[in-house]
Amino acid sequence: MQTRHRTPTIFNLSMVDVLCCALGCVILLWLLNLREATEQTLQAETVGTQLEKSQGELQTARDELARWKKEAETASGQLATARTDLRAARDDVNRLNTQATAMQAQIDTSKREADAGAKRILTNEKQIADLSASLKDTQGERDKVKSRILDLDKEVVDLKTAKTAIDLRLAKKAEEYGDVEKKLTEASQRVISLQKLVREKEELANSMSKKADEQVDKLTDAETRVKKQQMLADLVPGLREEIKTARDKLTAAESLVQGRDKELTEARQALRVAEDRFAGIKLTGQRVIFLVDMSGSMVLEAYTKPAPQKWTEVCKTVGELMESLNGLRKYQVIIFSEEAKYLLGNDKQWLNYNGKISSENVVSKLKAVQPKGGTNLFAAMKAAFDFRNDGLDAVYLLSDGLPNIGEGLTALDVAKIDQINKTDQDRAEQVKGELLGNYLRDKLKKEWNPKALGKARVHINTVGFFYESPDLGAFLWAVAYENEGSFVGMSSFEK
User: Fold this and answer.
1) Considering the entire predicted model, what is its pTM?
2) Is 386 found in the same domain as 297?
3) Is 102 within the bounds of a domain?
4) Interatomic CA distance for residues 339 and 348, integer angstroms
5) What domain range is 22 assigned to?
6) First and final CA of the chain: distance in angstroms?
7) Domain end point (choices 222, 239, 274)
8) Phi, psi of 342, rounded to the nearest 5 degrees
9) Does the structure show a pLDDT above 80 at 220?
10) Residue 430 near residue 471 (C-beta atoms within 8 A)
11) Tens digits of residue pLDDT in 34-59
C-alpha cells in the first residue's frame, strides 16, 4: 500500500500579507522608474521632433538658396545681397547643426540614464528582497519588545505596591520616632534630675563621711573605755551593764557607717553612668571616626535663613564629644560635602588622642572650614569603614540633612525624580534623599556593618543639627538604631 503524505503548507496568511506588501513596494518602485524613463523618452522624442523640424528648416533654407541662385542669374544687382543672405543662412545651418549635435548628445545621455534607471530597478528589487528578510527579523524583535513592555508594566505594579508598603512603614517609623523623641526628652530630663540627685548624694556622702569619721573616733574611744572597763568588770560589777550598752552603741554605729557607705557607692555609680552619656548619647569607643557634614546647609537654618552660629556649635560639639570619651585612644576626623576628605591629613591612618590638646586642635581646624556643596554621605561612610579591619569600634555622625548626591540611584530612579521635579522640586529632593538614604542603610546592613556571629559591630551614633524635617530625624534615628548606636536631635537656638 502506498503511503500518502499531506503536502506541507509553505505560506500562511501572515507571510502572504508580507509578500503582498513587498510586491506592492516592488511595483511602486517599478512604476516610479517607469515614469521617470517615460519622461526621459518623451524628452528624447521632443528633441527628435525639434531635430526633424531643424532638418526641415535646413531643407527649406536649401530650397531658398537654390531659388536665390536662380534669381542671382537673372538679377546680378542683387548678388551681393544674396551672398550676404547665403552667409547668414550658412550660419543658421551651422547653428542648427550645432543644436542637432547637442540634441544628439542629450539623446545619448537620456539613453544612459534609462540604462542607469534599469540598473536601479534591479538594485531596488534586491533591496526589497533584503527588506522582506529583515521584516521577518523585525517581527521577532517586536514580539520581544512587547514581552519586555509587559515585564516592565509588572515591575511598575510591583514598585507601586512596594512604595505603598514603604509609605506605611515610614508613617509607622515617623510615629515611632515621635515616641522615641518624647522618650529621649524625658530621658534627658531624668539625666538632669539624676545629676542633681548625684550632687546631693555627693554632698550627703561627704557629710556622712565626716560623721562616719567622727563615729570611728568615738568608737575608738569607746573601745578604749570598753577595755578599761573590762579590766575593772570583775572588780566593779556595776560596770558590766555599761560595757554592754557601749557595745550596743558600737554595733549601731558600725551599721550606720555601712549604710552610709552603701549610699555613697550607689551615688558614685549613678554619677559614672551620667558621666558616660553626652546629651543622651551613650559614649563608647576607643578607636573612633568623627564624620562631620560640611555641606552648604551647615550655615543655614530652614534651608534659606543664614545661621552662622550653627557651624560654630557643630565644631564645639565635636570637641566636647572627644573630651567626653573616657576610653578614646585613636581617632580620625572626616569632613564631607560632595566628597569626603581628612581634616587633619594622615589619610587612612589613625591619629593618637592627646586629651584637650587634640580636641582644641580639631575645633580650631573645623572653624577654619567654609561649608559648601551637597551632601555625599555614602562617600563619608565608605571612608569611615575603610578602618573596619583596623579596630574601628565607633562612628559619630554630625549632619543636618538627608544625602542628596552620591551612589545609590538607578536609571529608573533618576527618571522618576526628573518627572517629579517638573511639578514639585521639594518633593523631588525628598524622594532623592529617601532613595539615597535607604541605599546607604542597606549597604551598612549587608556589607559594611552586618550582624556576624563572633564579630563585634561598629556603633554608629548620630547627631542632627537644626533639622526642620521629620524625615531627617527618622533617617538619623534609623541609622543609629540599626547599628547599635544612639541618636540625638538639636533644633535651632532661635525660633
Assistant:
1) 0.48
2) yes
3) yes
4) 15
5) 13-153
6) 105
7) 274
8) -90, 125
9) no
10) yes
11) 888 888 888 878 877 887 887 787 78
Q: According to the per-residue pLDDT averaged within each range, which of 72-86, 203-217, 296-310 is highest?
A: 296-310
Cell of residue 401, nine digits: 540633612
The least confident of 168-182, 232-246, 279-293 is: 232-246
Distance CA 487, CA 397 (A): 9
Where are the alpha helices (H) located in 375-493, listed in sequence order? 377-384, 411-421, 425-443, 470-482
User: Among 495, 84, 81, which residue's Cα sits nearest to residue 302?
Assistant: 495
Same domain membership, residue 459 and residue 348: yes
Which of 67 and 242 is assigned the larger pLDDT?
A: 67
Express as a percent the part of the chain with pLDDT over 70. Answer: 60
Parallel, antiparallel or unpaired: strands 330-336 and 340-342 = antiparallel
What are 256's strand-pairing partners? none
Can you tell me the distance from the alpha carbon of 371 to that of 366, in angstroms, rounded to the nearest whole number? 10
Cα(332)–Cα(348) distance, integer angstroms = 8
Q: pLDDT (tens digit, 9 = 90+) per residue, 458-468?
A: 999 999 876 55
CA dist 242 → 218, 255, 324 (Å): 16, 20, 56
- Is residue 174 included in any domain, yes or no? no
- 3-state DSSP call for residue 400? coil
The verdict on residue 177 lying in a domain is no
What whole-number distance in Å separates Cα of residue 248 and Cα of residue 255?
11
Phi, then psi, of 470 in degrees rounded to 5: -65, -20
Report the number of distinct structural domains present in the chain: 3
Same structural domain, 236 and 349: no
One domain, residues 295 and 269? no
Place of cell 549635435: 101
Does residue 310 sit in helix, strand or coil?
Answer: helix
| Each residue's pLDDT tens digit, 388-433 | 999 999 999 999 878 999 999 999 999 999 999 999 988 998 899 9
**Residue type for position 405:** I
Q: Are residues 369 and 405 in the same domain?
A: yes
